[in-house]
């Protein structure tokens, strides 16, 4: 902020001030700045209050509760039990199964969903008639609630459902599809496929916004040089998407790690723990089994894991100078 | 600048905390203080039952001038959560609806006060009373009973004897019946035990089968451990038999969403369903319908007892009026009204006389006899909610092919740890 500007635009409320001129100047500036600051914070406050109320306080509370024996329903007040909940969690085989499932899910879904979304974005980033139609079509699953999507896909995956009918018809009855959601080896892959289908549209929009920031001049220049389609993608599009890529990587990863709705609706963690996840386990413990403290401990571990993984991703994708 | 930021953050934090605190503790006057009592019920999605309750309430309001009852209905799925949330905010209404097996849990948590009724409860079906530690905390106007339903024509075609209340099917007879029905080639799976059901359905429907084998969910003496009961040899035999039904192709690992409908559409030969489906099935099949008791798997047929019941909250400012309402709702004509509307089993013989089909010799009387003769309550312990979820998981795992002994041992380990961490749920 320019001092002279501040001096001319602001009335001087302290002209009686006996202080020398240079000092007076700075006091006016800081007063102006502080007023600007106050307005800023005022405008920020609705969001801050809500965030604090519904995110920060519950998070802090759950960190505290994880070290107690608090229960959802109990006539007794919670008491401090130290690391008991964590000791129990780290000896629970379902916990390790959840970790494996979530890792498997993330390792497949993150590249697949990001890749499919990028492909769709490139396909519709052209000036052809009807592109808006496809854009809407690809985006449709995103605006549909995950609960509804899960219920529909349960019918598709059922033993005599749509998918198995198609498999039987296409192979003239030679192939019989699996009982997708009741078979421990196919349940999680089936949920992965559905999740990618549902989520890819959203990331397509983000890729699309990234694609549109790449200057058209670069492509024109490349055309003059006679580059191939692959070279165009490899040396112009891909580097131009660096920032978008990092954003997408981190958002899909967090989304994949917190897998819950599909599991809750479709398989309830079964069959044989093949689809159980950390968040599902936390919700089951906290509400169904009324063990608030244990659920808090699971959430705390989950929070730490997400934080570590995101930090590693940030580090690996940092801008190297 | 830094300090200003910190100060602002600190003040917004404290403001937010204060707001949260106020919202939590903002308990107004207790329900019932001004002569108006609120009644919460779970059947917002069940119009016939809700209407019947409303009629009883209206009749009570018209019958005296001391108190008025106001009905508030919730969808069943979110009902328990609403009660728990209201209880932690100290805002429970005077009268609450409770699923029978939850009564000890809520009594232990001091949500409910012991009932002081002038009605003689000794004439009521045992399974309609919510007891804990020798005290009655809740009372229901009806119960439901599970049965096996089949078409007589199918049983005849397979050469299978129809089971009766005097002579139910034994395990061997049942297995043989399934084999004969399967051999007819009419069904992919002749038996439908409702394996698509989740939640409370699992312990309600399948723990009686476990009990018929001679196992149980917990040692009922003191309810301190499930060891030697849920993982006993009979329990393992139950698990092996249950999974065997899937392996032999007698039943689907996951049945259709609506078992009764599938049965009426002839997609299954024998269905395990409750009294609520009896009228519908009789209407569709007429005299061809056979309503049979559950299978005797060793210690006689067993079915789950205990449905929705009514209790009075500890915070109620006018418990006398609430008790008066319960007495009123337990009059024979009111019990009959609700039973008629819901197709359930009325709680007393006197009320049964007033419900068509449930009078002695009536077509549905057999369901009341099942309830009297075979019903086993789910364990009356505050640990039940936890036991229920562990049993649900163990059953799902066994159906999916887990080794029964291993799945049941795991459930026992978790249940015992939970009871221990709650100091035995003794007070």
Could you explain the architecture of this structure?
The complex is a heterodimer of chains A (321) and B (427). Chain A is mostly helical. Chain A has 2 domains: 3-65, no CATH class; 89-316, Orthogonal Bundle (MetI-like fold), CATH 1.10.3720.10. Chain A is 72% helix and 0% strand. In chain A, helix 13 packs antiparallel against helix 14. The model of chain A is unreliable at 1-19 (pLDDT under 50). Chain B has 427 residues and is an alpha/beta fold. Chain B has 2 domains: 36-144 and 306-377, D-Maltodextrin-Binding Protein, domain 2 (3-Layer(aba) Sandwich), CATH 3.40.190.10; 146-304 and 383-425, 3-Layer(aba) Sandwich (D-Maltodextrin-Binding Protein, domain 2). Chain B has 16 helices and 15 strands. Chain B has helices at residues 2-25, 47-63, 76-88, 103-108, 152-157, 171-183, 201-213, 233-247, 259-264, 278-285, 319-329, 332-342, 349-352, 365-374, 384-399, 404-421, and strands at residues 36-41, 68-73, 95-99, 112-113, 129-132, 135-139, 142-143, 146-151, 191-192, 270-274, 289-292, 303-305, 308-313, 345-346, 375-377. In chain B, the strands form 5 sheets. In chain B, strands 2-1-3-13-4 form a 5-stranded mixed sheet, with helices on both faces. In chain B, helix 15 (384-399) runs antiparallel to helix 16. The longest helix of chain B is centred in the N-terminal third of the chain and has 24 residues, at 2-25. Chain B is globular and about 65 Å long.
User: CATH top level of the largest domain in chain A?
Assistant: Mainly Alpha
Radius of gyration computed on alpha carbons of chain A:
27 Å
Question: Structural class of chain A, please?
Answer: mainly alpha
Alpha-carbon distance between the two ends of chain B? 54 Å
> Largest interface, per-chain counts?
A-B, 34 and 38 residues
Strand percentage of chain A lies at under 5%
- Total strands of chain B: 15
Strand order of the largest sheet of chain B: 2-1-3-13-4
CATH superfamily of the largest domain in chain B: Periplasmic binding protein-like II
CATH class of the largest domain in chain B: Alpha Beta
CATH architecture of the largest domain in chain A: Orthogonal Bundle
Which percent range fits the helix content of chain B?
Answer: 40-55%
Tally the structural domains of chain B. Answer: 2
Number of domains of chain A: 2
Low-confidence stretches of chain B: 16-27
Morphology call of chain B = globular
Order of helices and strands of chain A: HHHHHHHHHHHHHH
């Amino acid at each position: 902020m320019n001092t002279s500007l501040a001096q001319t635009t602001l009335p001087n409320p302290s002209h009686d001030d006996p202080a020398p001129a240079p000092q007076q100047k700075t006091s006016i500036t800081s007063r102006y700045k502080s007023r600007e600051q106050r307005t800023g914070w005022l405008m920020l406050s609705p969001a801050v209050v809500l965030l604090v109320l519904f995110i920060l306080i519950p998070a802090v509370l759950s960190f505290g509760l994880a070290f107690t024996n608090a229960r959802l329903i109990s006539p007794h007040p919670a008491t401090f039990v130290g690391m008991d909940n964590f000791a129990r969690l780290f000896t629970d085989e379902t916990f390790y199964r959840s970790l494996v499932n979530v890792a498997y899910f993330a390792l497949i879904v993150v590249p697949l969903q990001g890749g499919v979304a990028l492909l769709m974005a490139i396909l519709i980033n052209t000036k052809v008639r009807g592109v808006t139609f496809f854009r809407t079509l690809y985006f449709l699953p995103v605006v549909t609630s995950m609960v509804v999507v899960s219920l529909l896909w349960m019918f598709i995956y059922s033993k005599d459902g749509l998918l198995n009918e198609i498999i039987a018809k296409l192979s003239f009855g030679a192939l019989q599809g699996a009982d997708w959601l009741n078979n421990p080896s196919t349940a999680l892959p089936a949920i992965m496929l559905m999740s990618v289908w549902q989520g890819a549209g959203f990331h397509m929009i983000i890729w699309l916004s990234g694609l549109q920031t790449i200057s058209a001049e670069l492509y024109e220049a490349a055309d003059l040089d006679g580059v191939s389609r692959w070279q165009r993608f490899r040396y112009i599009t891909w580097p131009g998407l660096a920032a978008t890529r990092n954003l997408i990587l981190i958002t899909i990863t967090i989304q994949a790690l917190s897998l819950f709705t599909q599991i809750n609706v479709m398989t309830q963690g079964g069959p044989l723990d093949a689809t159980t996840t950390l968040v599902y386990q936390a919700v089951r413990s906290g509400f169904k089994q009324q063990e608030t403290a244990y659920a808090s401990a699971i959430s705390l571990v989950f929070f730490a894991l997400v934080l570590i993984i995101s930090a590693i991703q940030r580090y690996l994708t940092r801008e190297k100078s | 600048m830094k300090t200003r930021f910190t100060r602002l953050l600190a003040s917004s934090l404290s403001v937010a905390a204060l707001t949260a605190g106020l919202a939590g503790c903002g308990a107004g006057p207790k329900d019932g203080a001004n002569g108006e009592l609120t009644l919460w019920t779970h059947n917002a999605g069940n119009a016939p039952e809700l209407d019947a309750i409303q009629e009883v309430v209206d009749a009570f309001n018209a019958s005296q001038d001391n108190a008025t009852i106001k009905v508030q209905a919730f969808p069943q799925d979110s009902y328990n959560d609403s009660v728990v949330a209201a209880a932690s905010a100290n805002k429970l209404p005077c009268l609450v609806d409770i699923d029978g097996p939850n009564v000890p849990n809520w009594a232990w948590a001091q949500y409910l006060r012991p009932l002081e009724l002038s009605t003689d409860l000794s004439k009521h079906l045992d399974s309609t009373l919510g007891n804990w530690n020798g005290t009655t905390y809740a009372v229901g106007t009806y119960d439901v009973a599970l049965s096996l339903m089949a078409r007589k024509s199918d049983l005849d075609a397979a050469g299978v004897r129809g089971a009766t209340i005097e002579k139910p099917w034994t395990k061997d007879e049942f297995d043989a019946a399934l084999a004969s029905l399967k051999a007819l080639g009419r069904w992919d799976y002749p038996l439908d035990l409702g394996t698509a059901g989740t939640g409370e359905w699992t312990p309600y429907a399948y723990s009686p089968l476990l009990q018929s084998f001679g196992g149980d969910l917990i040692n009922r003496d003191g309810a301190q451990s499930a060891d030697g009961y849920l993982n006993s040899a009979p329990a393992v035999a139950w698990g092996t038999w249950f999974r065997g039904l899937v392996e032999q192709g007698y039943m689907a690992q996951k049945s259709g969403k609506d078992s009764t409908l599938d049965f009426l559409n002839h997609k299954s030969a024998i269905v395990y369903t409750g009294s609520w489906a009896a009228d519908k099935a009789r209407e569709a099949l007429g005299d061809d319908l056979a309503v049979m008791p559950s299978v005797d798997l060793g210690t006689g047929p067993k079915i789950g007892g205990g449905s929705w019941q009514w209790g009075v909250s500890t915070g109620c400012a006018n418990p006398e009026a609430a008790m008066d309402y319960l007495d009123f709702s337990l009059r024979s004509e009111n019990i009959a009204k609700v039973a008629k509307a819901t197709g359930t089993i009325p709680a007393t013989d006197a009320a049964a006389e007033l419900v068509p089909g449930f009078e002695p010799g009536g077509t549905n009387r057999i369901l009341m006899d099942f309830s009297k003769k075979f019903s086993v309550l789910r364990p009356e312990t505050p640990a039940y909610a936890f036991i229920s979820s562990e049993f649900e998981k163990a059953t799902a795992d066994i159906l999916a092919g887990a080794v029964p002994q291993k799945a049941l041992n795991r459930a026992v380990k978790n249940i015992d740890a939970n009871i221990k961490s709650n100091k035995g749920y003794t007070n």
